Structure formats: C-alpha cells, structure tokens
Amino acid sequence: MFRRSKRVLPGFRLSLGLTLVYLSLLVLIPFAGLILKVGGMSWTQYWDIVTSTRVLAAFRLTFGASLAAAMINAFFGFIVAWVLVRYRFPMRRLVDAMVDLPFAMPTAVSGVALLALFKRLGQVLDFKIIFTEWGLLLALTFIGLPFVVRTLQPAIQDIEKELEEVSASLGANRWQTFCLVIFPALRPALITGFAMAFARALGEYGSVVFIAGTSLPIVSIEIVKNLQGGQEDMMIAVAIATTMLVASFVILFCINFMQIWMNRRFADNN
After folding, report:
1. Are 73 and 141 in contact, with CB atoms under 8 Å apart?
2. In the chain, alpha helices (H)
3. Residue 108 and residue 152: Cα distance in Å, rounded?
C-alpha cells in the first residue's frame, strides 16, 4: 500500500479557507463597505459628482501623469535592470541599493526631499517645477522606478547567455537578437512592472502633496480634502474613490489579459 505523502503546508481546503478569510478581512470587506456607501446616493447624484469640472480635471491629470510616469519607468527601468544584472562595475551594489530608496523612505520624507531638490533645481534652471504638472510627473516617476527594476531583474537573470550566442551564430546581429530573442522573454515581466508602477502612481498621496500642493487637481488629494468636510463632502470622496476603484480594476484586468495573450503567443512561436 502506498502511503500518502505528508505535505509541509496544510491541505487545499484549509489553505483555501485561510486565504479567503484573510482576503475578506483586508480587501473584500473594505471594498464592500465602499460600494454600500456609494449605494446610498442616487445615480444622478453620483453622475453629477464624477462629471463635475474639478473631478474630471483630477481624473485626467492623475491618469495622464501616472501613465506617463509608468512609461518612463518602463523604458529607463529596463535599462537600469539590464545594467545591474549584466555588467560588473565599481559601486554596483551601492547603485543597486539606491533603487530601493523609494521603498525604504516614508512617503512624507520622499516628498520633503523632492520638494527641496526640485525647488533648488528650479532656481538653477529658472524653471518652476514644484506645484506644477512637471513636478508631479517627476515625483510619480521617482516612486515607481523600483517596481519595474525589481520585477525585471529576476527575468533578466533567467535568460541564458547561450541563447544570445546561438542567435549570433545563426547570423543575427545584436539588434535582431534583442528584438527576437531577449525582449519577447522579458515582455511579461516588463508589463507586470509597468502595471505595478502605474497602480502605485494612481494611489500616491504622501509625496505628491508636497510637490503638487492643493492647487493641482489630483484624485488622492481631492479624496482627502473632501473627507475632512461634512456629510455632503464625504459622499463626494466616496464617489471619487469608487470610480477610481472600478477604473483601476478595469485597467489591471486589461493589462493582465494582454500579458496572458502575449505569453501564449510567445509560447506558440517557440
């Protein structure tokens, strides 16, 4: 008779139960409370709030700056991750540790540091950075870079250098090797890092409040401002937060669907 092998972790039913309970306490119940709260207003009230001039401007600026920052991080984060993995140079470990600074620093500290830096830089360049859209873009780029770099580094390490040698032996130049061999293997990790940087930028508050102030219409700042008011302002904050929640789910679903499609296409081509 065969004995059932003992598992280190609990069985499927117990693990699934613990997972559902944990997710319910931390994620589902707060989201459900938010949906119930917005359900207390009529559709007309909700529509008037989310289509007001100030809220629409906040949506445009927040999504636009977050998307631009994520795209910048996807490009430069790829280069940083490639250099840190493939090359050896003096103080490489220090540079690698500096990537985690936005992770390690509290957002308020990051905001103060960026405020001092951008204020001085603006004086030198005779160009206003703080309390402008450019300052917001730089702040979102700063806090999102580690997500791309740390997601790409393991993927780059997993690529065998023999594949590049085989590609070169078959007559491919460096650009062809990168486009046809390296980049398709790194594309899923790059999309994941892009999505994480984009999602982080959408909800960032601590650093942008120092850089953008309260003059620029930003979703997170608008939510906090309305939370400090009365019942009517509270409903405005709930409506904005619910819209952001739905929009974030839709965007992340589309990105994940695109990633799955690319993985299947890459697997079929191989």
Report:
1. yes
2. 12-23, 29-38, 43-50, 53-86, 92-98, 101-104, 107-125, 133-158, 161-169, 174-177, 183-203, 208-212, 219-227, 231-269
3. 27
**Residue in 185, 191, 154 with CA at minimum distance from that of residue 71:** 191
- The HSE-up count of residue 162 (CA atoms within 13 Å, CB side) is 2
Residues in the chain: 270
- Token readout for 237 is 């904050």
Distance of CA 77 to the CA centre of its chain: 13
For the chain of 270 residues, list the mean pLDDT of each consecutive stretch of 10: 55 77 75 71 83 89 91 92 88 87 81 82 80 86 90 86 74 78 83 87 83 80 80 81 82 76 66
Among 134, 79, 115, residue whose Cα is nearest residue 207 = 115
pTM score: 0.80
Which among 192, 179, 183 is positioned nearest to 260, based on CA atoms?
Answer: 192
Q: Do 87 and 96 form a contact (C-beta atoms < 8 A)? A: no
